[in-house]
Design a protein that fits this description.
179 residues; alpha/beta; Rossmann fold; 7 helices; 5 strands
Length: 179
């Protein structure tokens, strides 16, 4: 099973659940994470979690700010679709090349992500590459994963990853957005 990891902390619960029935290899591919220093922190934390848990991690170290901005400009409300597709189609490609039986993503642990959309895109990517996308709703273990990641001392980010989600997390809300 190839487990696309958006970060180390989000991988905790899915990994614990999946390792009983699958030989897991992690995949860190997240060129959407900005700024560069945040991208590196998350990659390092994914490596740390993989090392502590004893599974192999494939880390694709790409930082494509210019491409992300070109694709997201004037389509900011659709940025999640673009982001999911980029990561899940790459995961399906890696799964195909690596002869994995299936792939899934830690995005499915977050109650803040769009599960129906992730499932749809994951299935499309799996169909295109001939690798099964395993949809499993990991949200029930979100809090457990948070607590375990804290116990492990893993770096925990405060926003999804892109510069827009960073803005939404930290920038003061304008008056009309508070309603």
């Amino acid at each position: 099973m190839l487990l696309h990891m958006c970060c180390g902390p989000c991988a905790v619960y899915p990994y614990q659940l999946l390792k009983n029935d699958h030989d897991i290899t992690g995949l860190f591919y997240n060129p959407n994470i900005h700024p560069f220093t945040e991208n590196k922190k998350r990659m390092d934390t994914a490596r740390e979690f993989a090392d502590k848990s004893g599974f192999k991690l494939i880390a694709i170290d790409e930082y494509n700010l210019d491409e992300f901005l070109r694709n997201a400009a004037f389509r900011e409300v659709q940025r999640c679709i673009m982001c999911y597709a980029d990561r899940l189609f790459r995961a399906a490609s890696v799964a195909k090349k690596g002869n994995f039986d299936a792939f899934t993503t830690t995005l499915l642990v977050s109650p803040f992500q769009k599960h129906d959309l992730i499932k749809k895109i994951g299935e499309e990517a799996g169909e295109e590459y001939g690798v099964q996308f395993l949809y499993q709703d990991f949200r029930g273990g979100f809090k457990e994963g948070v607590e375990k990641s804290k116990q492990l001392g893993l770096y925990r980010q405060q926003y999804c990853g892109c510069i827009y989600s960073e803005r939404d997390r930290y920038a003061p809300k304008r008056k009309e957005e508070r309603k």
